[in-house]
Design brief:
This protein has helices at residues 2-7, 22-30, 35-60, 101-118; strands spanning 84-88, 93-97. With 119 residues, it is mostly helical. Strand 1 (84-88) and strand 2 form a beta hairpin.
C-alpha cells in the first residue's frame, strides 16, 4: 500500500498543509523505485508509526510523559491513566484490570500478522 502511494502520490490530503507541491510530485514520479527500495521505505514508515502508537499507549497507560517541547514552559503534566474495570459477580465488586496497552501492542500486532497470513 505504501509503495503504491509513493509511486502514485495522492493529489489531496486530509489537511491542506500535507498536500504535495508540484515540485514534490514531479520528484517522486521521477524516482525509479525498485521493489527493494519500496520494501525498505515501508519498513521505515511502519516502524515510525508503531513507535508513535507505542508512545501514545505509554502516555495513556500512565507510564510515559508527552514530549516536553510540545508543552508550554509553565505547564505541568499531571499524568493520565486509563484502566479497565471488570465486575466480579461472585464478590459483587469491581476489579481493576492490570494489562497495559503498551505491553500488549507488539504481541497483538504479531498475532494480527499471523491471522493475515492465514487469510
Amino acid at each position: 500500500m505504501i509503495g503504491n502511494l509513493i509511486s502514485n502520490p495522492p493529489l489531496d490530503s486530509i489537511l491542506e498543509e500535507f498536500n504535495l507541491t508540484d515540485t514534490e510530485l514531479s520528484a517522486l514520479k521521477a524516482q525509479q523505485f525498485t521493489p527493494e527500495s519500496i520494501s525498505g521505505i515501508e519498513k521505515i514508515v511502519r516502524d515510525n508509526l508503531m513507535t508513535a502508537f507505542f508512545e501514545v499507549f505509554c502516555i495513556l497507560d500512565g507510564v510515559g510523559d508527552p514530549n516536553e517541547s510540545l508543552m508550554e514552559p509553565d505547564e505541568v503534566w499531571l499524568g493520565l491513566k486509563l484502566t479497565e474495570v471488570e465486575y466480579n459477580e461472585d464478590d459483587e465488586e469491581e476489579e481493576e484490570v492490570t494489562e497495559f496497552l503498551h505491553d500488549e501492542f507488539y504481541s497483538t500486532y504479531q498475532e494480527w500478522k499471523e491471522l493475515q497470513r492465514k487469510n
